[in-house]
């Protein structure tokens, strides 16, 4: 099974760029606003919508934790909109994404978030479900809502085994 | 000056409905997702965009606190998109909005948020700047980005005085 093993790497903007955007205040220089009474970290992540009938909505998710090594059987993607997850606390969570290869997910990459980081999956990016590592974690979700089919799922024939190296 | 005094009320979805949406997980029944491993609170607030050239972005703001009674000199509005603020902690903050009266803000209404509440100002809603009450407060901001003028400000001839009753 060694060919099916995936090592978890730290999440960085550069490594994640093919899949979307890391939401990370610490990576941005703020600009003053409100007569100097506030500082804005602008454009941490765009939340793109592919179709004129969709719009962005704010939601929330409570997610239960997973144990490592993780057996990854399923990934999904959203063809009509980007999808952002922002944790409500500073606990790390696992981010699993796959390159697209002719409409199917290729070999997964696994990242663990740093303090305060969230992610925004670009439109159509294959990704795993929300994966807290230690205990239940709550997230804000900013994504597309609207008519049409915005979910594709892919079941792997055999699971990928994901763990720290 | 008593005619210029505004009493702060608790923020509720009903009272705020003419101005936008209260973002409040506690007001929504979650739905199961991810094979029962997560619960989603969907559509807490739409983030509408008025023009095809705009898109929604995620940003953040650090805002300094204000003392009460607040002297409200200025409100602003965004004609091209809704604007949502979600606090990173549970501290209350002040939400000041005004009805529009022929293109100018009418008498303000002032609300104080409850535990975990955020707000989304509807497109074109007159509102005050971010107003934490006790200490610096950080927020996620979800709003429109794009070309065009998306800010109107209104300076009041004399300030409104905002305080708890």
Describe this structure in words.
The structure is a homodimer of 165-residue chains. Chain A is an all-beta fold. The first copy, chain A, has a single domain, classed as Jelly Rolls (Sandwich), CATH 2.60.120.480. Helix content of chain A is 2%, strand content 54%. Chain A is built from one helix and 16 strands. In chain A, strands 1, 6, 8, 11, 13, 14 and 16 form a seven-stranded mixed β-sheet that branches. The first copy, chain A, has a five-stranded antiparallel β-sheet with strand order 2-12-7-15-5, with no helix packed on it. A two-stranded antiparallel ribbon of chain A has the order 3-4. The mean pLDDT of chain A is 95. The A-B interface holds A 23, 25, 30, 33-34, 37-49, 52, 55-64, 66, 84, 86, 88, 120, 129-130, 140-142, 145 and B 23, 25, 30, 33-34, 37-49, 52, 55-64, 66, 84, 86, 88, 120, 129-130, 140-142, 145. Chains A, B: Pathway: Nitrogen metabolism; (S)-allantoin degradation. Chains A, B: Homodimer. Chains A, B: It comes from Methylorubrum podarium. Chains A, B: Its cofactor is Ni(2+).
Descriptive terms for the model:
homodimer; about 160 residues; mainly beta; Jelly Rolls; seven-stranded mixed beta sheet; five-stranded antiparallel beta sheet; 1 helix; Ureidoglycolate lyase (chains A, B); Ureidogly_lyase (chains A, B); EC 4.3.2.3 (chains A, B)
Alpha-carbon Rg of chain A, integer:
16 Å
Helix content of chain A: under 10%
How many strands, what sense, and barrel or not for the largest sheet of chain A? Answer: 7 strands, mixed
Largest interface: A-B, 40 and 40 residues
Q: What name does the CATH topology of chain A carry? A: Jelly Rolls
Order of helices and strands of chain A: EHEEEEEEEEEEEEEEE
Total strands of chain A: 16
Terminal residue distance of chain A? 15 Å
Number of domains of chain A: 1
Average pLDDT for all residues of chain A = 95
Q: Which architecture of chain A does the CATH hierarchy give at level 2?
A: Sandwich
Total number of helical segments of chain A? Answer: 1
Low-confidence stretches of chain A: none
CATH superfamily of chain A: Ureidoglycolate hydrolase
Percentage of β-strand residues of chain A: over 45%
> Quick one: overall form of chain A?
globular
Oligomerization status of the protein chains: homodimer
Structural class of chain A: mainly beta
Regarding CATH, which class of chain A? Mainly Beta
Subunit structure (chains A, B): Homodimer.
Catalytic activity (chains A, B): (S)-ureidoglycolate = urea + glyoxylate
EC number (chains A, B): 4.3.2.3
Enzyme class (chains A, B): lyase
């Amino acid at each position: 099974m060694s060919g099916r093993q995936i090592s978890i790497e730290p999440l960085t903007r550069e490594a994640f760029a093919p899949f979307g955007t890391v939401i990370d205040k610490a990576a941005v220089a703020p600009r003053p606003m409100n007569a100097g009474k506030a500082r804005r970290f602008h454009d941490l992540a765009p939340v793109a919508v592919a179709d004129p009938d969709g719009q962005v909505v704010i939601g929330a998710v409570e997610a239960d934790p997973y144990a490592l090594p993780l057996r990854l059987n399923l990934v999904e993607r959203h063809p009509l909109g980007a999808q952002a997850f922002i944790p409500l606390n500073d606990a790390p969570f696992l981010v699993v994404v796959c390159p697209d290869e002719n409409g199917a997910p290729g070999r997964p990459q696994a990242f663990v978030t740093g303090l305060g980081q969230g992610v925004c999956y670009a439109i159509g990016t294959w990704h795993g479900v929300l994966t807290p590592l230690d205990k239940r974690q709550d997230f804000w979700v900013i994504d597309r809502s609207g008519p049409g089919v915005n979910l594709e799922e892919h079941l792997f024939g055999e699971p990928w085994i994901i763990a720290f190296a």
